[in-house]
Amino acid sequence: MATATPTPIAGPSAWQGDTLLDDTRWRFALTEADVAELHAALAVTMQKGQPWQQMTKADFPLIGLRQTLAALAEELENGSGLANLSGLPVAAFGDGLRHLWHGIGLHMGSPVFQDCNALLMRDITDEAEDTDSVLGHKLTARDGSSFKSSKARTLSNALLRFHTDRCDVVALLCIRQAPMGGVSRIASSAMVHNTMLDRHPDLAALLYAPYHRARLGEERGGELLSYALPVFGQRDGRFTSHYSRTYVEAAQEMLDVPRMTAAHWQALDTLHDLAEELCMEITMQPGDMQFINNHVIYHARTAYEDHPGATLDQRRCLHRLWLSMPNSRALPKDQAVLWRNTDGGAHRGGIAQA
Q1: Which residues contact 56 (CB under 8 A, 6 or more apart)?
Q2: Is the per-residue pLDDT at 1 higher than 80?
Q3: Residue 228, exposed/middle/buried by CB under 10 A (0-12, 13-18, 19+)?
């Protein structure tokens, strides 16, 4: 059942960045035997000649690496909520890299759709164009100015604020890093919650009440759709937080959405400030695989600069998967408006297809 009175979150998911940065529990590395097994699994898949989107877990056979991936999944759900697997020689896998990354994802969980066009893997890179106009996601603010969707901000080289994605676990494979910037900033939402509960209990209580969010840039017609969902939630002693300020701001530009009070905005400002205070910073290197449990972690990114004149295939690039996890926690019932299924271990998250 959902918790009526906010209580502090105990356990390893509530951490401070300066402490976790020096901890090795979330750091994993591929061995030579692991890399050899990945080559062998890729050979099986490529021999079948099927597109990576049509792969099943059986098409990418892994035995030796299963134990490591199981340990990652355990750390994500019952540990810190963060796992980094390093040591993938990306250049060695050539055109099979998407097959390999999707195959790893299938052994972790079930990849879910990242947009309304059944996208399963997104390239996080600077597309250097007006993505909203190209995709038909333009939103005009009430003052007549243009409002950028979360997707457009992601596909640029600009700073990304702390947020969560619409899946149990977001998985990022670093293909190329920028020569300047692009630093990952990671904060425990459980620790942000606990600190706010201690310092500003009135503001923490507001975040347990619904905030309206737009579906801008996600579902078809999302610039006209909104839903109400709390930022914080608990069920059966487990915590979850879903937060992206951009969707809240977009909803406030819609005429039929209740206007937020100054206290509501102050609660979001305080959440951001605490995430800044408590986070740690990581610069991913090519071959790094980063896994984040969105229920207990906020992630952000600093702005970055690619090499001058870099073409699309030379720019900073991460391959992103959204995963529904078989060991996921049960969620409060009011989260169904976003997740559709709130049962633990359920197939959930991602963008519903029309």
Answers
A1: 106
A2: no
A3: middle
E strand spans, 54-104: 82-86
- For the chain, state the CA radius of gyration: 20
pLDDT in tens, 115-168: 989 999 999 999 876 555 555 555 555 565 665 766 777 888 999 999 999 999
Q: How many domains does the chain have?
A: 1
Q: Which pair of tokens denotes residue 74?
A: 């355990």
Task: Specify the CATH number for the domain of residue 158.
Answer: 3.60.130.10
Residue 285: exposed, middle, or buried by beta-carbon count in 10 A (0-12, 13-18, 19+)? exposed
- Give me the domain span that covers residue 97: 17-339
pLDDT above 80: residue 288:
yes
Q: Is the pTM of this model over 0.85?
A: yes
Q: What is the DSSP string of 246-288?
A: HHHHHHHTSTTSPPPPHHHHHHHHHHHHHHHHH-EEE---TT-
